[in-house]
Amino acid sequence: MEKRELGKTGLKVSAVGFGASPLGHVFGDVPLSVAIAAVRRALDLGINFFDTSPYYGGTVSETVLGQCFKAIGVPRDRIIVSTKCGRYSEGFDFSAERVTRSIDESLSRVDLDYVDILHCHDIEFVSLDQIVNETIPALQKIKEQGKARFIGITGLPLSIYTYVLDRVPPGSIDVILSYCHFGINDSTLVDLIPYLKSKGVGVISASPLSMGLLTDSGPPAWHPASDELKGACKLAAEHCRKKGKQITKIAMQYSLLNKDISTVLVGMNSPTQVEENVAAALELSSSVIDKELLNELENILGPVKNQTWPSGIQQS
C-alpha cells in the first residue's frame, strides 16, 4: 500500500484509510469478531490510518476500534489514529470545557495514550468564530499535553476551511478532512488544494462514493442530494453494470489519482470490503484507470457536476 506524506506533520499515511464509522453499527450490526477481522486484514494489507469519532454510533465506533487494536495487539507505532470532538449523539458542543473532556473520554474508549489527529467535527453547524477563538486554542493545549499530536477540522462546505485558516495563527491547524468533494461527480476540493498547501495543511478526503451515490445499491433514503443528482448517479451505476464494471471500483480509483490528497477515507466493516478497496488501489498502482469508462461516466454526470447540498447553519 502506497504511503503519502500528510502535510507537514511528518506522518506517512496509507493512500487508503480505514473509516471506522461502520464499526459503530451506523449501517447495520457488525459483530466484534468481524470488526477485529476487518482491522486485522487492513493492517495485513498495509493500511495504517484509522479514523473514528465519538459521534459514530454514540461512542460505539471508538470503543469497538479500541477493542480491535487490543485484540490484535498492534504496536502503537504501526497505526495512525484520528478521532474527533465537538459533535456527539446528543448534539454539538465546541466549548473549551467540552472538547477538553472529550479527548480524555475518547482516549479511554480507544484505549490509547494519545491520538495522532484530533479533529473538530463538522464545524459548519456552529459559529466559526467560536472554533477560531475558543475551540482551536483549547485543542492547542490538548496538543501541548501530548494527548493529540496534530489538530484538524472537518465539514462539508469548503468555505469553512478558508474562513478558519485565515483567522487562526499559522501552524494552528495541521490537517483538514473534507468529504464528498473529490469524486467523479464532485471534484471541487482540487480548487482548494493550492491554498491549503500555502497554509502547510495536509489534506484528507473522505467518502469517495459520495455517501452511497456512486454505488449499485444507491444512496440511503436520508441522503440529502437532489433527485437530479441521485438520478444521474443511478444512470452512471447502470452504465457500469451494462459494461460488466463496478462503479464503486472506478470511483475509488478516481479518488486516489490526486497525490496532493494524502489519504482517502472509506468506511469499512468487513475483511471483504477491505480487500476490495485495497485491490482497487493496488490495481491503479500497477496500471492506469479505465479512461474510456471514466469519460463515459463524466459525460453522464456532466449536468450535475460539482452539485452539492446545504450543510450547517448560515454563517454571518
From TrEMBL:
Residues 16-290 form the NADP-dependent oxidoreductase domain. One of its GO terms (cellular component) is cytosol. Pfam families: Aldo_ket_red. Keywords: Ion channel, Ion transport, Transport. The keyword ATP-binding does not apply. One of its GO terms (biological process) is monoatomic ion transmembrane transport. One of its GO terms (molecular function) is L-galactose dehydrogenase activity. It comes from the Eukaryota. InterPro entries: AKR (IPR020471), LGALDH-like (IPR044479), NAD(P)_OxRdtase_dom_sf (IPR036812), NADP_OxRdtase_dom (IPR023210). This is Voltage-gated potassium channel subunit beta-1. It comes from Rhynchospora pubera.
